[in-house]
Amino acid sequence: MTLTNSATVVFYLLFFTLIILFSYLGFYKKNKVCAVLAILLPILVAAFRYNVGTDYAAYSEMYNQVSHESMNSIHSRFATGASEPLVLIIIVLFKNILFGHWLFFAFFAFITTVFLYLAFKKFDEKKVWLLYSGAMLILFPLSFNAMRQIAAISVITFVLMNIIFDKKKRYWHYLLFTVLAISIHYSTILFLPVLLVPLIAMKTNYKRLSFFIMLALGVALVILPPLMSLVIDAGILPEKYSNTFEQYEPAAISFDLLIIGIIAAMVFITRRHFNSYPKETNRIIMTMMSCAVFYAGLGLFSAYIGRMADFFWPINIITLWLIIDRMKDKSQTKAAIFLIIPILYFIASYIIMGNSQIIPYQIMLWVKMMI
């Protein structure tokens, strides 16, 4: 069944409304059933879609190919870096299971939703329902076009929040989940230096640190292309990452840069301190925003670097809440303002910009396997 464009918009708005409702009742009011539904609903929407998002056709084809390949061929895919290891493992596990094709998409949606929830909960358990809802409005539709990368972003955000807020500093714990993120999408490797930012920002003036990071990334921009060529030639990363200029439309990157830039400007307008959060947290968040703006700016010239700006979206969502939290309005008003902005972003990015990757929405019917 294929919905019309207008029906699809209604479908998504209903989906977002239910997500906000279930998140509020489940994560804030501690209703366990609603908490499960808040996690489950996005997984179902992702799993039962048909031909929605640029990843659908590519991964449907990959699933069918790998499902019928020998273990030697699958090992060759892994050895040459043609596919990330976890993708191959999941296909091998699901290929003989009824509806395994749907479970394949559901798995990565599960990774995305669960780790975003855990990351936001680590930041602020009382506001997790707001942050999770905002992420579903902004990041979840993007996952239809970048399924593995958004899943990897969710995992590495969880690692980042633990580095910042976990008092026990279980580094083996961070390493384990970092490897998980890399096994989902190789681009996570480029984000690893950013994980050091919280450790340094705790003891450094954020303005000086931001300048240092921008300088270091500028130098990296000069040496990264030849370095990545050597890495790709060595077979460490697949050749598909050697040319990503066509993967990002300049208009989309410019739009993301505009949004990130507006949030960053609001950060510096509000100066150093946000209500109810310690100075160390403020310093880290503002430093990360500097990285986000810089990566997004470089993305206008190099899509490969621009890919990294996507990793900062959860940080952008947190920063947006920190800014709104400074307002003197009632908590209900703050929550409403915070949720309106992601809704407007969804409308702008998928309608005004003419991005039809997820509109119209098509549904896989139980009576017909559309693989």
Q: Gap between N and C termini, in Å?
A: 14 Å
What is Rg?
20 Å
What would the principal axes of the Cα set say about the shape? globular
Number of E strands: 0
Spell out the helices and strands N to C.
HHHHHHHHHHHHHHHH
* Major sheet details: none
Number of helices: 16
Structure in words:
- It is a single chain.
- The protein is 71% helix and 0% strand.
- The chain has 16 helices and no strands.
- It has helices spanning 5-28, 32-47, 54-67, 71-79, 85-94, 100-123, 128-143, 147-165, 171-184, 197-201, 206-233, 250-269, 279-299, 303-309, 313-325, 331-352.
- Mean pLDDT is 74; it is low at 236-251 and 366-371.
Short summary:
This protein is mainly alpha-helical and 371 residues long. It is 71% helix and 0% strand.
